[in-house]
Give the backbone structure.
Amino acid sequence: MDPRTTVINERLRRISRIIVVSSGKGGVGKSLVATTLALTLSRRGCKVGLFDLDFTSPSTHLILGAKNDQPTEEKGLVPPVVNCLAYMSLIYFSGEQTAPLRGADVSNALIELLSVTQWGELDFLVIDMPPGIGDAVLDLVRLVARIEFLIVTTSSRLAFETVKKQVRLLQDLKVPIIGVVENMKMDGANGVKQGTEKLGVRFLTEVPYDSEVEGAIGDVTKLLGTTFAQRIGKVVASNIA
Amino acid sequence: MHEWALAEAVITAAQQIAEKEKLKEIKEVTIKVGELQQLERDILRFALSQLKPRGFKNAEFHISKAKTTLKCRVCGNTWLFRKNKLDETTAEAIHFVPEVAHAYIKCPKCYSPDFEISKGRGVWLENIKGVR
């Protein structure tokens, strides 16, 4: 028997809310939404953790401008504090190397980090997911007792069609969905808002393409000053904290 | 001490099995530790002894090492993991999350990083014995 799964919920016991930022499609801005959400909650006085579960293409460390911090060992792994966030990513172990992981490896790495990371007491843990409805999503739903999903899409039908499938899956699994964020909103496109409401899910906000965001990667003060962050801030104020 | 977190998992899992099997007192717990994760067996044993809950007072922990077999998914080559071929930083990274081996180890025959960890990954609870 693999003993690790038995302690996962104990490790997460002192976290009030666990928000999983996810999308059926890649390239929609999940990592930016997850990081900005975590930073916004932290700036509002909450104790927040950010966990990058996109093992093969992690990017939250770049958005945060994380430098030489490392987890410390104390009856497990204690995440370093980066920009006021307790932060954990596979990047601390894989470094600049590519980590080509298949499904079973993703599950094993996810279980390992969930079972040994000592998050302590947090108001929020924000999890940045890999794209798709694969092993990572299914494992989190299976292993973590209290999770809520925040789903990100773009205006493109190609993204939203997969998001619809993801929403239906989560609804079937009876997993709470906070709502849908439409990122990089295209002028004149209204399909996402209507489609989201049709699914019985809250449409949280639309965020127009913000060219300032690229220049703010690695500088969280600059990032929090963007229109993008202001929109995420409104979502937090009206729907989360 | 990363081993403490895993020792806690072993104890919790053993407790769950004991409860399911209605075992009142545990006599023996057998654990396998895969070489890939390079856990310190002495630390693990010490942690287990410190974490013993009620019903485990007289339990003996048997910890055995399992060799790690890796199998290339491209050419089918099978080989054994050897820690001494890694530098200290890499060995430590694999110790914390064995799957990052894919970032550092390649098939010695075809150099692909696409291999399977067939045996000997990490901690495995093999067996528990007790009395009802």
